[in-house]
Structure formats: C-alpha cells, structure tokens
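TEACHING EXERCISE
Course module: macromolecular assemblies
Task: Read the component lines below, then compare them to the predicted structure of the full complex.
Student: A.B.
Group: 4
Components provided:
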Amino acid sequence: MQDSLFHSLIDIRESKAGLLGKADLVLERARWATSIFERYDIQTTINIVKAVSDAAFEMAEEFAGKAVEETGFGIKEHKKTKNEMASRYLFNYYVEQDFVNPRVNEEKKIVEIPRPAGVIFALIPSTNPIATVNYKIILALLTRNAIVISPHPAAQSCSYEAVQRLIHAAEKAGAPEGIIQVLQSPTIPMVEAFMTSPKTNVILATGGTPMVRSAYSSSNPAIGVGPGNVPVYVDSTANIKMAAQRIISSKSFDNSVLCTNESVLITVPEAENSLKLALKANKAHICSKEDTDLLRRFLFHPGGFNVEAIGRSATWIANECGIRLPSETKVLIAPISQIGVEEELSKEKLCPVLSYHVANDEKQAFAQARAVLRLSGAGHSAAIHAESEETILNYSAHVEVYRVVVNAPSSQGAAGLETNLAPTFTVGTGYFGRSSIGDNIGPQHLVHWTKVAYNRDEKVVFGNYHEIGKDFPGPLPEAEIEGLRPSSRKQPTKITQNSVESAEIRKEIRRLISEELKDLLGKSNG
Amino acid sequence: MSEAKTEFLERSKKFWNPGKTQDWIDFGVDLVIDRREGYYLYDMDGRRLLDFHLNGGTYNLGHRNPELVEALKAGTQRFDMGNHHFPALARTALAEALKECAPSPNLQYTAYASGGGEAIDIALKTARHATKRKKIISIKKAYHGHTGLAVKAGDDRFSKLFLSEDVNDEFIQVTFNDLTEMEDALKGRDVAAVILETIPATYGFPMPNEGYLTSVKRLCEKYETLYIADEVQTGLMRTGAMWGCMKYGVEPDIMVTGKGIAGGMYPLACVLISERCGGWLKEDGFGHISTGGGAELGCIVSIKTLEIVQRPEVATMVRYIGNFLRTGLDEIRQAYSDFFVEIRQHGVIMGLVFNDVQGAKPVMRHLYENGVWAIFSTLDPSVLQFKPGLLLSQTDAEEVLRRMAIAVELARNEVMGVKRRKL
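Instructor-supplied answer key:
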C-alpha cells in the first residue's frame, strides 16, 4: 500500500492514538494466535520449533553477511557461529524439556500446569541482530507464546528479513498465523506504545540501558538486562599460555560485540611478564603510553563511547588512532594504572581493545575487579583464569555478577557457547544489575505453572494424573461458508516488501543509535 | 430503571419518536446509550453492553476508535464539510484510495452521498443514465434504505407507509437464490440494473448459493443490465476480504459502501462507478448535488478507515474471530438444537436462526439482560444478527459466548415452553 494514498492530507501515525492503535492491533492479533497455540501438543510444538531452528541454521551465513553489511559491526564468520548457536544448538539444548504437558510430583502431591506468558514484546540489539532474533523466537515458540519482534533501527533491514523467513518456516510447519510478528520501522515512540500496552504480557529487553530502564518502567512485566563490563582476573596459578590464548580468542570473537567480552584484564606482578609475552604471542599489541592516550581519545568522546568503533577490527581502530602495528594484530592491549571514573578505559568497550591492569596482590586485584563492575556491568559477567579452587571461589564471591567464567573465553563462555551455561543472548543481570532475573534467560522464564496442590494429610490420597491432561485439540476448524468453494476461502497472504529508507531516515537513525549507545556506554552506573 | 431514565424516555417520546421509544420498551430493551468505547456501550444507568449490533458494521472498528477520532480531530484543524461544487482535496484523496482497493479495476470514479439511501439513489440513477432503461431488479425482502428510489427497491414494509411504493412496475423483486426468476425478469432487456446486497442483511443473512452471484452477473452481461453491489454491510473486511463480492468473484459495475466507511464518526456513503457507467459525470457533473455528500471531514475519517482495515493483521483477526465464535456457537447450537437451528456465517457476518418466526426477539432480550447487545433481522425476526467487530479481543469473544449460552437457554425455555431453570 502506498503511504501517500492514506497520509498525504492528514497524518496521525506519530500521534499517541496512531501509535497505540497500531500496537493494539498487532498485539491483539498475537493474543488471538496464542489462543490457538495453547491448543497445540508437545509434538506439534516441537515440530514448529525445529522447522524454525532449521531455517535459522540454514540462513546463518547469509544473514551473518547481511548483518555485518548493514551495521558495520563484527565479523561475518563469527556471526555465523552465533547464528548457528542460536538455532540448532539452542534447540537441542532445550528440546528435551517439556513446557507443554502438566508435570506431576507424586511426593509433594502437586500437579503443575504450564501457562505461557502470552504475548512477548522483544527488543533486538544491533550488535547481535540475527542471533537474538533466532534465540527469542525459539524461546517463545518452545513455550507456546506469541512474540512481536522490534528490530534495532541500525539493523532493521536484516532483522526484519530474517524474521520474515522464520515466520514463513513456522507457519509452514503449522504455527498459528501471527504467532511471530515483526515491526517494520520501529521508532522510539512506537516501541514505547508497545511496551506500555496492557496487551503486552512481558517485555524481553536486550539493548541499551535507556531502553531496558524504559521497559521496566512501562508498568508491564519485563525481563531486561543491563550492560556488561567484564573484569577478567589472571591469577598466578593460571596456565598463562592458555589464559592468553582464550582471552585473545574471546576479544577477537566478532570483534567483541558480545556484551560478555572481557573489558579489563587484571593480574598480579607474579604473572605479569609471562602474560604479556603470551598475549603478544597470540597477536595482541601491547600499547605504549602514547598509544594508550591515542586510543583513549579515540574511543571516548566527551559525550561517551565512540559508536564508530563498535565491532571494528583492531587494525581498523589502530589505523584511525594513528597507531602503527603489524597487520595480523587481533587485539589492542591498553595498560592502565587506575580503575574508576577517572580512567575511561576501565569502562565497557564493545571492540577488541582490552585494558590491562596490574594490581599489587590478589586482594587488590579483587577490589579492582569489583570497581570495574561498579562503573558498569553489575550483575553481568566476570572471568578468571586460575588453578586454585580457593582463589576461583573467592573471586567469584567478591565480584557482583551472576556468572563467572573459569578458564574459558568470556565472550563465548558467559553466553553458554564454551561453558555448560544455558546458551543465551540475553544475560540476566539480576538484582545487582537492577533486573528481575539473574540467570541466562531461557524458555523457563516465559512460562509460569499453575500448581495444583493436595492436602498434605496422608489420609487424603493423591490422584493419578499421569495419563490425563495431554489431549490437545489443535487448531480450530475453519468456519464453514456456505456457497463458497473451499479453494476460494483462503486469501493469499501478502508479504509487504521492505521499503528502501531514504537518506534522511538513515541519518536520523544514526543519530538515535549514537545517542542510545552513548547513554549505554557513557553511564557510570548501568 | 432509574428515575432519570424513566423521565428521559418520556422526553424521548415527547420530542423525538414516540413509536420507536415505546417499541423498545415493549421489546424489553430499555436501552439508552450514553457513553461508548470500543465494543462497549454504556446505558445511561451505567450498565455495560458488548455491542454485537454495530449498526450494520458502522462500528466495525469499535466506537470512537481512537485513530479515527484523532484523524477527525486533526482534520478539523484544516477542513470542514467543504464546498460540494468544487474539486476538493479530501474527496479526491478518498476516491483515489477507494479505487485502489475496489473489487474491479473498472471502478474508476466515486460519487458521494451523506448516507446509504442517498448513495443507492445515486447508484440507481447512474444505472438508468448509463443504460437509458428504468427498471430495477432487487430481491424480495431486500433493504437498501429509505430515500426516494432506494425505498422502492426494498420491501414495501417501508414504502407503503408513506404511499411511496412503486406503482409503475419499475421495481421488480425476485426470489433470492432463484436464477430462473432472475433470468425471466431480465429477458425483456429493459432492466437498468440488478441491485444486490452481497449477503442480504436485513433479511437475516441468507447465504448466496454457490455460483448464484456470478451467474447473476453473467445474466446481467447477457441482457446488458448493470450489476450494483450493495456492500454497505458486507464490505470493509467483514468477510475477510475488502469487499464481500470479491469472495464470490463478482466484479460489479457500480458498488455502494456506507456505514462503516467513516467508522461511525461522520455520516458518509460512497458510490463507486465504472468508466462505462460514469457518463453523467462528464455530460453533466452537476447532475447529482449533495451539500453533505462527501463532506471532507468524513472523507478524512474514511481514508483512515480504509488504511486500518487493510492492515494485514485485520484479515487474520477476522479469521480467528470467525473460527472461534463459530466453534463456540456450534456447541451452543448442539446443546439447544431444537431451538437454535442454524448458523449463517461469512467471516464476522453472522445470522443465528431460531426455530420460531419471532425467535430472535427473546434471544435479543435475554442477551440484553446478560450484557450483550445484538438485534433481530427486521425482515426475518427468526434471525438474530450477530456482528462481532473486526478488532474484537479474544477476551471479549470468550465473554460473549459465555453470555450467549445463558441467553439462548433462557430464550429457548421461554419459547419452547420449558420451565425456566433456576439460575
């Protein structure tokens, strides 16, 4: 439909009524779709999730390319890995869990009936625009929820197209029409309208701090996560060579756009020399004081982090700063003597720049790690490389985070790629991070259970619930229309083509992202 | 009933319409609609009713749909009714938007009226001008409005009263779904137009037989008669397609839309006219004049209506609402099968048939008592018109079924002479 046909004389699309009208319609369609989806049995549900996960896997590479092209963030090969991880691996991780049938606890005389959240409104970040789409859709479908995806303006085109493909796969496998929806060109006021609508059951907010905070203040239930700023401690007991290798592999993974990437490396004098050598051996460049000054100036502008640097390669950044280094350099190491508000390099850096601090001893190292998290990233992630269990546990109890990755790359590890943590693209930052959940967000967070509890008295016998409650009637029959041949009943679905954005809009979008990211990266208290 | 309402009803009788006011009281429906919002009506005594009458689809998008209200409000900053003699921005914009979604690429022009009856008159006059014939065929029990020509095309229930029935045999009425009768009436090659509601509403939504409408269109072509689709109640997505006739594969020569087109926020009706039929618009563009017809504020609201109903979400909603209510109504029908005998349905157009010539009236009353407002079919009171809105929420759909089951049981017991079960 041509917009000019409807809006040339009077345009109310951006008015409160216009935005709410749109939101309510999309959300009510989703609500209707859930009323059908909750009639699906486990097998049908799993088949749909599998179809979506397969489709996501198939298009992992194609859309990794599209994401890099559109956003300029990250590395295609690594994005492909993430997209794949957020498809088949994620599916396999949860496929055995049943969020559909009632579960029976004989011992406690309790039956539990799963009750899906309903309609999920999901915000997608620009840094992982495909993986997060895959991940949130799979989580929603596993729990028979409807989901409305709001792409990030900077990754709008690739996220939108990816969702369209997944919608196609889901509906082909029998998913109710409208169970997955995507906003074509979300604006901040439109997102607000969706977040505040009483028709939204839960907001899954992954993105900048302002967006997450606004999700929490929407009056709707929200699962929002704060930013990261990961301290990584390399202990004297660590296998230094392996530690260096893992840290570099993590920092260079998708050029550090995962919020689980190491931000500040902290070590002790005993490990310092061998660590530096090992980092160099892994293609890290240790910056001189002058280099570090150049880097600081380039990365941190008076208004906050330089958005241009996000997800760029080490050589690109060095080139911009005028630092000379070997072309195969993967990570820039910036030695810093202070941690805190005075040292901007101790803040989060979504690029392959790693700050490097040598503490006097373990005690001071732990205090510095806590200080890193005080700047931002509370509740998020930390990492440690050590062999001493006592040190590992002590460190973990000190840092105010809900996951500590041990002897593994943090980017991948905290997100569940190289640890046995649940694979996730939404890291719950819990109470430390002003969030409601401290786990890696999974399907279990999108369903509540009605508990049917018997009298504890032994004289009251618990019933047999094992064979019942598993009859799911499936989709409703199509209402019959007399006098119409069945073939003419269904209207072909129109797929609206994504319109090409004008230069003006792109400019506006860049401004919005820049503001959002500045806020995200510039805040000292996430 | 409150004292205030009793007093109000007296005033209504005194100043507005004594007959109508009293009739509703006699029907057991003491409704005085005050506040309204979405699909809810609030009686002046505060009681809430779910609106399943929608005035024939006028309130398709709900009462005071916020987007329509906003469009109207914004419109008043720039427009008023406009000067009907001149080319006008909003009238042309709506005409263009209508052409874009018309059921036939031939429907080129839009002529405007301030209500459905006037629009039907324009359509019939247009057909007469184009064919130079005078006769009009409609169906028995048809209803097309109350103006000069429209009232003659309808059942004489409304024309005789005013001594306005056809006396020159210019208006022929044939049996719906009877092709032989239709062809017989057309054979003389002196008929200007056949006018058909795609699904006759006031007659209780009898469904056209398979192939009926396309055959009528073919007969029209054979005898050089024009086909006028009255889409006032079947248009605007109520069948799941933009216009009901599209579902039946009929491309009309002239199409009339009204009621819901301006969402109940402004009176407006439109006649879509093909190039071939639009001769008078060139010969004498001042041929039909209507000061309020195509009032530009109404056009502004209607453009918004067209935009909303064509959003892809709406078609899905219609399907879900239709399927859900049908499943629930089927269950109720099975439980009271001796009384609730048939469900006529196309999308969110529904007629519920009861086993008594006046059977829909007690159902209406009991629904009213149970917080749902739906009205019987004037020309076949065995049928209850049951019209959910396009944007009906899942919760309200569930709510209406719960109330419907109660009302049908009460009505059945009343009509079938079974003792009322204590509630």
